[in-house]
From TrEMBL:
Organism, scientific name: Hydrogenophaga laconesensis
UniProt key word Transcription regulation: no
Source species, domain of life: Bacteria
Protein name: Broad specificity phosphatase PhoE
Pfam families: His_Phos_1
Secretion signal, residue range per the UniProt entry: none
InterPro entries xrefs: His_Pase_superF_clade-1, His_PPase_superfam, Mito_Ser/Thr_phosphatase
Length: 227
């Protein structure tokens, strides 16, 4: 048996002009995860990442914290869906930006209500967000990475760094969940969270989901983020 560790990227730059880069907090989360693993003697036989900057930066932080020197395998099928395109597919008008701190929570909730609705319609095939693959193609990009791990790394520890969408899709695939249940998993996954699969050449089995063992100390209580 082998173990596959799936890590969501550290906190990105939600609300900024360029979301696809880690915030200072996201980098600290990633480095701390690497330190946590180094303290426990964790080693990986292979690393696979999506090709987005936040994936690469998260792996760089983990490698820095742990002293790892691996060269990762880049897997485009592990890239996140385009949340802005998903929302535009059902709400073509620009979303309002908060004018003050009081408006921010409600606008944040509105954003994720639209995202949930858009994801539901994309998964059902009723909308086709611009520039995005069909949902079946997105799922194949994720499951092909799982197939690669089973075929090539039996008995190994493998690290996969990706985003909430692909990781929840992987969990949904392994557990046979409905698209609606997969969306709920997606919208609750935390930054730098660790999900574990045990695997053999035939199948993956879920061991844990959305855990933050590296942030359990009380001095890290403000490091838990979702965006």
């Amino acid at each position: 048996m082998g173990t596959l560790y799936l890590v969501r990227h550290g906190q990105a730059s939600f609300g900024a002009d360029d979301y696809d880069q880690l915030s200072d907090m996201g980098r600290r989360q990633s480095v701390q995860l690497g330190r946590y693993w180094a303290e426990r003697g964790m080693a990986f036989d292979a690393i696979i990442t999506g090709t987005l900057r936040r994936h690469e930066q998260t792996w760089a932080g983990i490698a820095e914290g742990a002293g790892f020197g691996h060269k990762p395998l880049a897997w485009p099928g592990l890239n996140e869906y385009d949340s802005e395109a998903v929302i535009r597919a059902i709400h073509p008008h620009p979303l309002q930006k908060p004018r003050n701190a009081q408006e921010a929570p409600e606008l944040y909730r509105h954003h994720f209500r639209l995202l949930r609705d858009g994801l539901t319609q994309w998964m059902a095939g009723t909308v086709s967000p611009q520039g995005m693959p069909a949902y079946t193609e997105f799922v194949h990009g994720v499951t092909s990475a799982l197939d690669h791990v089973r075929a090539n790394h039996h008995g190994h520890n493998v690290l996969l760094v990706s985003s909430g969408g692909p990781i929840s899709t992987a969990v949904g695939h392994v557990l046979g969940l409905s698209p609606e249940a997969t969306i709920e998993l997606n919208l609750r996954i935390r930054n730098s969270a660790v999900t574990e699969f045990q695997f053999n050449p035939k199948r993956h089995t879920l061991l844990s989901y959305n855990t933050l063992p590296h942030l359990e100390r009380v001095d890290f209580k403000d490091w838990v983020t979702y965006a």
